[in-house]
Amino acid sequence: MLEIKNLHARIAESGVEIIRGLNLTVKAGEVAAIMGPNGSGKSTLSYILAGRPDYEVTEGEILYNGESILEMDPAERAAAGIFLAFQYPMEIPGVATMEFLKVAMNAQRKARGEEPLKIPELIKRVKEEAGLLSMDMAMLKRPLNVGFSGGEKKRAEILQMKLLQPNLCVLDETDSGLDIDALKIVSDGVNALRSPDRAIVVITHYQRLLEHIVPDSVHVLYKGQVIKSGDKSLAFELEENGYAGIIEEAA
Amino acid sequence: MPAVQDTIDRVRKIDVDQYKYGFETEIEMDKAPKGLSEDTIRFISKKKDEPQWMLEWRLEAFRRWLTLEEPTWARVNYPKIDFQDIYYYAAPKSTPGPTSLEEVDPELLKVYEKLGIPLKEQEILAGVQKPKAEADEFDEAGDNVYKSGRVAVDAVFDSVSVVTTFKKELAQAGVIFCSISEAIREHPELVKKYLGTVVPTTDNYYATLNSAVFTDGSFVFVPKGVRCPMELSTYFRINEKNTGQFERTLIICEDGAYVSYLEGCTAPQRDENQLHAAVVELVALDDAEIKYSTVQNWYPGDAQGKGGIYNFVTKRGDCRGKNSKISWTQVETGSAITWKYPSCILRGDNSRGEFYSIAVSNGYQQVDSGTKMLHLGKNTSSRIISKGIAAGFSQNTYRGQVSAHRKAENARNFTQCDSLLIGEDCGAHTVPYIEAKNSSAQFEHEATTSKISEDQLFYVMQRGIPQEEAIALIVNGFVKEVIQELPMEFAVEAQKLIGISLEGSVG
Amino acid sequence: MNMHATPQRTAAETALIDAFGERLSLLPGDGEVMVKRDDAIEALKAGLPTKRIESWHYTDLRRLLTSVPAHDGAVQAKAIAPLLEGSTVLSALNGATAGKLPSIEGVTVQSLAEKLTDGSFAPALDPYGFDDAIGALNTAFVADGYFVDIADGTEPETPLELQNVQAGGQTHMRFPVRVGTGAKATIVERQTGEGAALVSSVSQLVLGDDAEVLWLIVQEQPDTATHLAQFKAKLGKNSKLTLFLMNAGGKLVRQEIIVDAAGEGAVFTLRGINLLAGDTHTDVTMVLDHSVPHTSSTEVIRNVVTGKARGVFQGRINVAQYAQKTDAKMACNTLLLSDDGEFSAKPELEIFADDVQCGHGATVTEIDHNHLFYLMARGIDEKTARGLLVKAFVAEVIEELEVEPVVEALEALLDGWFQTHG
């Protein structure tokens, strides 16, 4: 589903290279975990996948279902089924969460040539999903993410993900700022989305999240490259011994 | 290059010629000769069959006007206006005063159709009440679903009120809603008592000019204790070439009365600049409340900034009685030049003034708008929420005065004034005047200027919302506080207008 | 359409024009300086600014300046003790530099009269924009002052104190200061005296790249004096200017602050306190230009108004089109403690760049009743409690300066004012 080949990318303004020859393949149905120390380029990778304009790809290729997405803008990528759950979701003052969900869902439907959702149908779906995430409907009337706690923001991200039904889910440090109960709820939400035709990329610093969302593969990112890949046991190994050993081994 | 750059380029290229309501209607006109003199004023007064006192009043204003100079303090630039090159009176010929819709020129009715304004004339004129929107629940969640209340329309087509509906029902409630010309003839005692008491003929250059030459406008009188049974609305429309529009509106709410008044404007496209200098006076007596809402989208000029309307308006409300309240809400998207400061004189003890404003400027538009809240009585309060959005090559200025006089004990004001810039060739300016002469006054003023953050834009686009729509969504969020103050039917039009005004970037 | 009759000159305008005729031959300056003086008096002949001039909206100088004292060379003014102990003091007494010029390593001090006489200062006499009445008045009459140059990379060991002490009559001084690249200095400007004088004083600071300056203006004129002052500064790349202003006297005071953040990375901080009492008028007007990208500024003005005092703060922040990434914040807070006093604020933003974060806030309030109640509930009587709260309101701004001797000295001044006026 996702194939990244020899990717090089830098910050557009400063020209600083962050991703330096990254290779990664994630198949449909797979849950891939990307781990790495701070500053290894994890968040940058998620932004580049979603098409954030602050970064420039200078070399390499990103194929999604066999086709390059590099020329697509963020909205086109989203409509094609790529979803990024942000580490720091943005606050949008004055735009009610419910209104935002409606606009986003219908924009994607429109891009795919589908009819807009009827309002009662929309409400029904939102209510169901919000209930599963223990979210209060009153919260959905508030402006998007404005005044939400860290945990509420993360839940709102997962709610959006479940409603938009993407094919490729990228979760950037979704566990940060969550207490154990919230972590469980959010993980259940993600697990519910596991399916043979969907891929999930979980970016995390700690192994903790991977106890709840068990990955099929684990990839260690360091200085903009995948330096080691393995199965879930690699995550435990990292938890035990830290990154130092693997970094040395790679060097 | 940040993504926003693309939007900026598009905004820069915005085709203001697409002006949605730019079409002309051909109806025979009856005009006064071009130019301004005592003769013109006598002509207007005679055409309108006015009493002698009204003519004298106009002439006095005209003589005063001759001694005044055009103000220059506002942050607007425009070529000098030749006041002798303007027609001061133009009336549709075939209208000796229709009593029902059938008598109205069908051309005029077509104009309404073409306007496609959300008022939905057919329904309203037929007295139809639209079924409530299907999903109230969703509405609560923040969507503005159109819910039609009942609205009475008094249309000013060029200069003369042509059609007035719902008159009977209003009359039953004791509400007078008619053109100002009719009021001068039919209710001279009321006009004499209140006209010029809020905006005196000596007030300012444009108001004085208006006093001399006003041709029409609305008159509303809500007697003691009456809550006006429907929202009153006037759709102004500038039509004939070179006709300055000089409406005069006077709204009076007696003790305990309430009225909500809607004003909306569209204008056809043309090359020459058109002058518009209206005066609106509101009087609220004890415990009365007046809510005045405006959506203004006059022709802003072409892509080079040529040909738009000059809008020099004096709007003022007098909270004359205790516990009275006046609330102004405006959405300004049109005109080449806007010079407009709807104000409140908070004279009565415990009176309250409100000003909610959205001003969108694009192309070469220049907006200098704001309010004055003059606290004179005890325990008076005021609230100002102003949202300015500047794009293209436009200049958008908020200018507002809040003052507490010596005796204005416990005066309270809160002002929030935010500006959003789209593109790097526009300007946003904030000029508040805060004046306190009473130690118990509490004034709070906050202002911010920023642009749409790229992080926000990226976030919204990541959810699959195309850039143009994403900007519209964020902008509509930015102005939400003000949109909420509008009556429902206006809220819908306002949101659409904001989209249209930023067209090219927000589709 | 109608004609404006040339307005009749006021007594003050006439007195100024007459004084110019009398003084001109005694004032220092070469031909070029004389031309500038002449231009300046021509500008004044058009009339002092009225409230119809936007930048003078709340200070109608033409109406407020009712009389102008004659120049009096005979009176004596005495130097005062410096604000900060150990400062190098440069005193200007009754309009002339006095005493021996100090010699400090890396610092060059000259009398301005010298630089006027040789004409080298002529270019710096140009007015600021339009309506520069204070600049014009000073240019026409300036007799002396100190010209200070702090060499690149130097950091004088002691603070430098510029004293302008009047003794009545007229005093017109200028204090141009250049702080070189990477240099650091603390400069105190004292404006005081004992007479019913008309004072004009202009400080001109040029800050080199990476330079850092803390400049304190302390104005304590008697309530008979008219004090018209200007502080102009131009900031180089990555330079830092912290300006502290305290107005605690004067009958008619206008302090203009004109700052150009002209170098990328420049940081400007303004902290001001206006302590207003009696039947006086005090106006602080700031114009701040952010003319290049990546500059930032914060301004906080705190005002306490008692008696029949009238206070004004006008602050305009201009952000040029090219000045992206500007970060500017301004706040003006007033405690209006008397029904006979008044305060007017006009915090303006003029913004032509889109990628900026700018904001301003202004409040006029009473003492917080909750705070008052809290203190009184702890057994403090109302008068004392009010005093404490008012002082805390302004002291906050001083404490932000963080340099201990400076904070202590300014708080001592504050105590003094509250003892006299509290």
TrEMBL record, chain A:
It comes from the Bacteria. NCBIfam families: sufC. Gene3D superfamilies: P-loop containing nucleotide triphosphate hydrolases. The keyword ATP-binding applies. Coiled coil: none annotated. The keyword Nucleotide-binding applies. GO terms for molecular function: ATP binding; ATP hydrolysis activity. SUPFAM superfamilies: P-loop containing nucleoside triphosphate hydrolases. Keywords: ATP-binding, Nucleotide-binding. Residues 2-248 form the ABC transporter domain. This is Fe-S cluster assembly ATPase SufC. Belongs to the ABC transporter superfamily. Ycf16 family. It comes from Mesorhizobium zhangyense.
From TrEMBL, chain B:
SUPFAM superfamilies: Stabilizer of iron transporter SufD (SSF101960). Residues 236-478 form the SUF system FeS cluster assembly SufBD core domain. GO terms for biological process: iron-sulfur cluster assembly. Belongs to the iron-sulfur cluster assembly SufBD family. InterPro entries: Fe-S_cluster_assembly_SufBD (IPR055346), SUF_FeS_clus_asmbl_SufB (IPR010231), SUF_FeS_clus_asmbl_SufBD_core (IPR000825), SUF_FeS_clus_asmbl_SufBD_sf (IPR037284), SufBD_N (IPR045595). This is Fe-S cluster assembly protein SufB. It comes from the Bacteria. Pfam families: SUFBD_core, SufBD_N. Residues 167-228 form the SUF system FeS cluster assembly SufBD N-terminal domain.
UniProtKB/TrEMBL annotation, chain C:
Residues 169-393 form the SUF system FeS cluster assembly SufBD core domain. Signal peptide: none annotated. It comes from the Bacteria. One of its GO terms (biological process) is iron-sulfur cluster assembly. This is Fe-S cluster assembly protein SufD. InterPro entries: Fe-S_cluster_assembly_SufBD (IPR055346), SUF_FeS_clus_asmbl_SufBD_core (IPR000825), SUF_FeS_clus_asmbl_SufBD_sf (IPR037284), SUF_FeS_clus_asmbl_SufD (IPR011542).
